[in-house]
Queue: 4 jobs
Job 1
Amino acid sequence: MAAKPKYQRILLKLSGEALMGGLDYGIDPQVIGGLAEEILEVRATGVQIGVVIGGGNIFRGAGLAAAGMDRVTGDHMGMLATVMNALAMQDALEKRGGFARVMSAISIHDVSEDFIRRRAVRHIEKGRIVLFAAGTGNPFFTTDSAAALRAIEIGADLLLKATKVDGVYSADPKKKKDAKRFEHVTYEEVIARNLQVMDTAAIALCRDNRIPLRIYDMTRPGNLMRIMKGEAIGTLVDAG
């Protein structure tokens, strides 16, 4: 008999850039397909799953603002990019036999449901994978903050941030060879040392609501399942 997963309900945060694979822009079908397979493998063990996807592979509001565009307009474009990514992930999951719902923080009734917390929880309880799109629905808030917020709202046991690095480092490991990787760090240390795990608002939300956060390397197949089995993959951020 397979071991019971360590977590009952998780919120997985995927960056938009993660969907690009080796491309310069957009979505690599092989990458999103591989992610969908990993998510469904974990779902098959009974774990309930919510997902937040960024939009940086298409548009990033802050980047558009830096180039001279109105920040609010840029952020709204970024929100729409996350909806596109969520729809792509829904398609990838359903093609592999999964059940998924896209719930958007901004109303786009023809392509997604509105985010309503009670309805989202009901979908999750029925075994559907819920893809939370459009961030928080507000400009100036990142999809990291949206992930922390949704994790709290659905009562997740763990917030996972899937990245291209194997955890949190004391400095950028690409620039400093002596950068130290942490297996465990507290919310307060992340904020005080500006470790760039997530933005400060997201970390503060996790801290204030006691949601543990794990940062791990999504480019290594099987890592998500290993975490569900209780392996210490990547870096754990909690109260200490």
Job 2
Amino acid sequence: MIFARSIRWRIQAWHALLLTLVIVGFGITAHRLVSMNRLRLVDQELQSHVAKLGIAVPPAPASETAHRPPPRPGPSITDQITASGAHFIVWNADGTVQASSANLPAGLHRPEHEGTGESSVMRNFGEMRQAVHFTGAGRCFIVGRPIAQELAELRQLAWYLAAAGAGVLALGLLGGWWMAARAMRPVAKISETAEKIATGDLSQRIPTATSDDELGKLAGVLNSTFARLDAAFTQQARFTADAAHELRTPVAAVLMHAQDGLASAPLTSGQRECFDACQRAARRMTRLIDSLLELARLDAGQEPMKREPCDLADVANDCLDLVQTLADARNITLELHLDPAPCLGDAQRLGQVVTNLLINAIEHTRGRIIIATRRENDHATLTVTDNGPGIAAEHLPHLFDRFYRADPSRTRGTQHNGLGLAISKAITEAHCGTLRAINSDGGGARFVVKLTANGDVAVSEAAA
């Protein structure tokens, strides 16, 4: 998915993870501290009851005649402990119950005293908190009370903390999304500008007026690089055009002298062969110069393309007359599937594209070429499919490069200058279309021209 590859989404994911860990850690710590504080207060209350109970229930006298302190007037300490909602029980050293409250919970037994001497521990008994105290003489005091209210309040606090954490997380994610968007905005501008430059608009530059941080410095370096690229391509295009213009005159002179030499008489066979070779070489150089000039004009946008209604089926049908003789000479069958494919464009320049593709297919086919046109939604498509050896995968990305030669199986015996496919692609892109080469499932190569009916940018052809 695109989200998995987006830096913005990855930043947001890490921000969400860290923010979640911080909020969860804070919530757990806060709840733990509050729980410990509430239990500490309960424990202090129970330990106070134990101290009072030690006074209210003194050790049993050794005999019946021993002196007992007179009862105090008013509610006894044990009654006060019971009235507070607490329960208690006191065991003598021999394990007999000396005193207990009426609200003792069921299943309460005298615990074992581990070790010797006085000791106190706090424990949970169901939803009750109890203080267990052993005296040095072996007596055991247990005082406890229900903590259901405290547990309910702690559960409610946990829900409050969860709700507050969720709110803070949502606000943090929204803030993080906004901050990530602002942080990635210069990167998006850099990417957008780079894409426009990659499509051929070398005049684009990254705006850096309001950015003086690291991204601003990067944008400045990239702008400098783009400027040098623009200057290099402009100089290259100018050199190509100037060189082609300068070569035209001497090549024309060579061609004229070769023709004059062939027209003169008498000539020996060796002289005629020499003049004929010069004429062929001059004509080939003329074609190369014309192709270079055409590419230079296309690169500079000096070749205006008409935007007139036309049909790729009619364009292909007209081009067949130009290549039929060449196909018949090589015993190649041209199979037609020309369905209506209306579009907007320059029929003459589109015919040049179709002718180049057909001649290229004739050079590399084994006996049959399929020419098909069709309408696909808002697109007009033309395909030229041969049944030749196909194109090696390493050559496909470079097939439309200028002067690029693929493997010998697709170039053997050709007399072309390697610019026909480059010119075809430049003309197609000038029509805001696409030209791609793919290997057919049944063998051979397939060239696909795709234009839109209204002249807008076409969607790239997906490989079959």
Job 3
Amino acid sequence: MSSPIFQRILLKLSGEALQGGQGYGIDPEVLQVVASEVQELIELGVETAVVIGGGNIFRGLKASAAGMDRASADYMGMLATVMNAIALQDALERRGVYTRVLSAIEMKEVAEPYIRRRATRHLEKGRVVIFAAGTGNPYFTTDTAAALRAMEVDAQVLLKATRVDGVYDRDPLKYPDAVRFTRLDYNEVQRRDIDVMDSTAISLCKDNGLPIVVFDMLRRGNVRRVVCGEQLGTLVAPTNFKFGES
């Protein structure tokens, strides 16, 4: 088995990925696949943080578009991410993986409050840290939360797990002739408004030189392959960035 080229990573999972083919909620089989992939990282000695969205349970933007107050809708979305985080924590700990959920909204009965130094210490001890409740503020997506937390804990790369094998010039599920990018820089993503992450997240990563790898989470072993240096999916990074030179 190859050795990892990153010592500390942040894995961004969409809530929709957890619903599998159900269309809503959490598919237990998908949850076990995700837990297995994360367990492999811990066995490789990679310090692993995770941010999960909540779109499989509640989408704040969709509710806001339907007439709900945006701030209230976003807070409900944050609570959905906590539910997903607890589900992943349970799946990991059933596998013997030590895990901590840190929430940006205080709820001491189910999660620790988010404190940057505490999060870093958990990672140093080999625990998976799951960041829940986004940034704790409305109007910010979990993409932005992932970029922010990655930089706060000094992650070397942000891995964005999706249901397709990278970033395309248009939706590959609708257009069979869509072209996949193997590499992009932040400026091109912003200039062409390419759908990688939201604009705030891209700006944060650009300003701090944090590389992003977008890849297919549904193929078993892909997380390990990326962490060990195999160039899967699409890399969004500074022009001079090379794998293994974070």
Job 4
Amino acid sequence: MFDALCLDVRHSLRGLWRTLAFSLIVIITLAIALGATLAVGSLYSAFVLRPLPVRSPEQLVAFSAIEPQANVTGYFYDETFNLYRNAQQSFAQMSMYSGAGLYRVEARSGVFDAVSEAVSPSYFDLVGARPSAGRFFNEEDAATGAVVVLSESFRRRIFGEDGGVGEAVKLNAVPATVIGIAAGGFNGLGADGPTDIIVPLTVTRAAGGDLSAPLRSLNIVGRLKRGRSIDAARAELLARWPSIQAATLPATLPDAARNALLAQRIDVESIASGFSGLRARYGRTLAILLGVMVLLLAVACANVAGLTLARSLARQHEVAVRLALGASARRVFWQLLLDSLLLAGAAFAGAVPLAWGILRVVRASLAMGSSTFRP
């Protein structure tokens, strides 16, 4: 049977070579349409569909706040967060969170740019992170703000294979000590690129130069309790948050800032796929573009089907001769099908490197426009 298959393949290749123009048109048409569809589909999957590599990502949610009048992102203050965390019934774990911040890290080996996450100590248990060396910071460490946790990849980048825990560094000129290394594979909650360093919120305050300012974060992240839904968590938030916030906002806030915070719109949304500025900016465009690419692929397939039908009509005499010489209808059908499979295989072989090239170009363009995106 293998010998017969080899014979059929050789015969199909000879036939396709004799009609080289037809073969090239079919291969190029399918390769372009399929390659473009694969590239856009890969981008859409990476930005929109791919879940975070953490334990039970579907249980992760984030609080977001928008100030309606200015249409800008609001903040969450630590006293409000702590009181709400103790009062709520929807979340097993909660943490304050500000991600995708950029720090200039000064180490003994040089100066490096680092993408950061500023969090509460409960963050590590919430996401299921584990240290490969040292430990994560606790409430006492967070109060001092002079500590930092590095990712495994960033540790290797600034210290090589040796060093890490106990090293003294500066974060935007603020002294800190490396107390732990997150195990490889943990990239934080950002979907646009891996997190390099994780710091307490007090480091963010110190880097801003105002040690008396109240602690605040851009988001609150939480892990839903088993059996609790996002809708139930949202309903509880809307019921409890206004009174808790009004009672806990810092007394030092100006009246205008206080009124803006009390008027801000709070929501709860899933972050199973992580935080992504690129998703917010390009997600809908990619969805539309993916639909266009699928339509383009369907049109290309229809055109190729028309060309193949025309070629089949032109081969009626050849098919009649084969049948007259004793070939079975099944064998003739198999030979025609093999021609199509070879053309499709050649088109796919051309589509893969084309899609890879498109992805490289798009990723390079996105990396130039986003400081946290890394191809």
